[in-house]
Design goal:
The complex is a heterodimer of chains A (105) and B (304). Chain A is α/β, with parallel strands linked by helices. Chain A has helices at 11-14, 30-45, 60-65, 92-103; strands at 3-5, 19-25, 50-55, 73-78, 81-87. A 5-stranded mixed beta sheet of chain A has the order 1-3-2-4-5. The chains are: A alpha/beta (105), B alpha+beta (304).
């Protein structure tokens, strides 16, 4: 698995199967940059994770579709179905907790 | 064909904000040695390799099949990083020492879980030597010391993002720049920002008459300062050869139209006028230049 950048065309396919972490971000948002680093680090520790990033400036339609009101917002999905939405910066421990609950749950 | 759009207010004199001394704000940072160790290991892992192993050790990623009456422990082909505690700390601890292909019934919280080890993957990390680091091909990183500094620089980046001192330094530079630059304000743009200040104040104080001591004069001053810094930004853009065009504005409106499908383009243009767009973008340009100066100064002082 890896980190993929989604467009409105590729999003459904990238999130269709298994456990996925979706990061809605914008390039000018400082907490988004911090979260991006955390996610990048996690892919080294847990290479089986599927992480999908959506730049809401480039893909506003995806932002509207998923009712994203602030960035960063993280969605945890299983087989394309939303399990939880977290608005705001998450640290590594918080994300690992969600992986433990949802990937293995 | 795209036309250049310009701010009408003009900076007659732009203060050299790189002369502002921000050294007093550079405090409160110390290298987190535990994090540094973790970050170094992550870099090494990126350039390391994975190999199959015969017996489970902590740190391995094991693919396993497990059977149990509890749903969580009834899976096939599940990857588990052993020792991280994501799947089950107790189960992961008991798996250490099991061999590939081995099946064993373990106990987790009084529940029997039969575990079969399908595959064991182990990360083989390169040693932290100058030669190995040079072979990674990381830009500007050719020795083990460089790599250490690279990882410390990451901590400094985190500090720049999280700590309030860099923000305070940027605010101070912003203030000094506005105070010491000379701007000829366009009356039309001045009137426009005052209208925006009024609207913003109404928005912020709606239903809250005691809204934190905000008054119209303060709000107008904030918006006029933004206009001044936009004029500085326009001058900085010109020096850098950067421009704003009608295409940029059209692209901005396209994004808004996509984000608000119920609104017409004319409505959006009324709310997000080209004048407001130019002020906002030019002020952003100044803010980015200041942030760049602050970050560079902090980095130079802290990455050793």
């Amino acid at each position: 698995m890896s980190v993929s950048i989604a467009t409105k065309e590729t999003y459904p396919q990238l999130t269709a199967e298994g456990f996925t972490i979706v990061d809605f971000y914008s390039t000018t948002c400082v907490p988004c940059k911090m979260l991006s680093r955390v996610l990048e680090d996690l892919t080294l520790d847990y290479p089986f994770l599927n992480i999908v990033k959506v730049n809401i400036t480039d893909e506003p339609r995806l932002g509207v579709d998923h009712e994203i009101e602030a960035v960063p917002t993280v969605l945890f999905l299983k087989d394309g179905v939303e399990l939880e939405k977290v608005v705001g910066l998450m640290d590594e421990d918080e994300i690992v907790e969600k992986i433990s609950a949802y990937y293995y749950g | 064909m795209a036309e250049t759009i310009r701010l009408k207010s003009r900076a007659v004199e732009v203060y050299d904000f790189r002369r502002v001394d921000i050294s007093r704000f550079i405090t409160g940072f110390a290298v987190d040695e535990a994090q540094l160790k973790k970050d170094l290991e992550r870099v090494l892992r990126r350039y390391g390799r994975q190999e199959d192993a015969a017996q489970v050790c902590e740190g391995d990623t094991v693919t396993l099949n497990c059977r149990s009456d509890v749903g969580r422990y009834n899976k096939t082909g599940v990857p588990v990083p052993v020792g991280k505690g994501l799947f089950s700390p107790a189960l992961e601890e008991q798996m250490v020492g099991m061999a590939r292909g081995e099946e064993r019934t373990l106990t987790v919280d009084g529940t029997a879980v039969t575990v079969e080890i399908v595959r064991i993957r182990r990360a083989v990390l390169p040693e932290l030597t100058d030669e190995n680091v040079a072979s990674f091909g990381m830009e500007g990183v050719t020795t083990a010391d460089d790599l250490r500094r690279h990882c410390i620089a990451r901590q400094v980046e985190g500090f720049l993002l999280e700590d309030e001192n860099p923000d305070m330094a940027a605010a101070f530079v912003w203030q000094e720049l506005a105070k010491n630059s000379q701007v000829e304000r366009d009356p039309g743009e001045c009137a426009r920002v005052e209208v925006r200040a009024d609207a913003k104040l109404r928005e912020m104080t709606a239903g809250n008459s005691a809204a934190a001591g905000l008054d119209l004069e303060t709000m107008r001053r904030i918006f006029v300062t933004e206009l001044d810094l936009a004029a500085v930004g326009a001058e900085l853009m010109e020096r850098d050869g950067a421009t704003l065009t009608t295409d940029d504005y059209a692209a901005y409106l396209d994004k808004l139209t996509e984000a608000y499908p119920g609104r017409t383009r004319a409505e959006l243009m009324e709310e997000h006028s080209v004048e407001a767009f130019v002020i906002e973008r030019c002020a952003e340009y100044t803010a980015q230049a200041i942030d760049g100066y602050v970050a560079e100064t902090f980095r130079r002082a802290l990455v050793k």
